[in-house]
Amino acid sequence: MTATVQPTLDGSVPEPRKTRTQRQAEDYETWLAEVWPVFIAAAASGRTFTTYEIADAHQLPDPPNPQAHWGRLMTLLKDEGYVRTAGWAMTNRPTAHHSGVRTWKGTAAARRAAA
């Protein structure tokens, strides 16, 4: 079943609206440049978070390969000393059916970098 698009009063057909779930970065480097500062700020906040919570709150695009790149981002942040593992939680991602996911917490280095 396909959705019908209602023409406007002048007869033109509007462009389909892009939603956050449709937004996906073209390449890894561009995506990383967009999401990196957001996750540094989340780490500097000192609160415990999941990757999805931050991505959803800031309406970040998906990477070119979501199954691999979200985890790679967090590994890079951990290797750079910005975050540490904090435990586990059930995700609130709608498509994940409350699966267990890693939680993260910013380090003192992240708080110093934000200052």
**What sort of overall outline do the alpha carbons produce when their principal axes are compared?**
elongated
CATH class: Mainly Alpha
Kindly name the structural category: alpha+beta
Terminal CA distance: 53 Å
Annotated CATH architecture: Orthogonal Bundle
**Looking across the biggest beta sheet, what order are the strands in?**
1-3-2
Q: Over the alpha carbons, how many angstroms does the gyration radius reach?
A: 18 Å
Kindly estimate the percentage of residues that lie in beta strands according to DSSP. Answer: 5-15%
Count of discrete structural domains: 1
- In terms of per-residue confidence, which ranges show pLDDT below 50 for 5 or more consecutive residues? none
In CATH terms, what is the fold-level topology? Arc Repressor Mutant, subunit A
Please give the largest β-sheet.
3 strands, antiparallel
Q: pLDDT average, as an integer?
A: 85
Report the total helices.
4
What does this structure look like?
A 3-stranded antiparallel β-sheet has the order 1-3-2. It contains 4 helices and 3 strands, in the order H-E-H-H-E-E-H. It starts with 27 loop residues before the first helix and ends with a helix. The chain has a single domain, classed as Orthogonal Bundle (Arc Repressor Mutant, subunit A). It is an alpha+beta fold and 115 residues long. The radius of gyration is 18 Å and the shape is elongated.
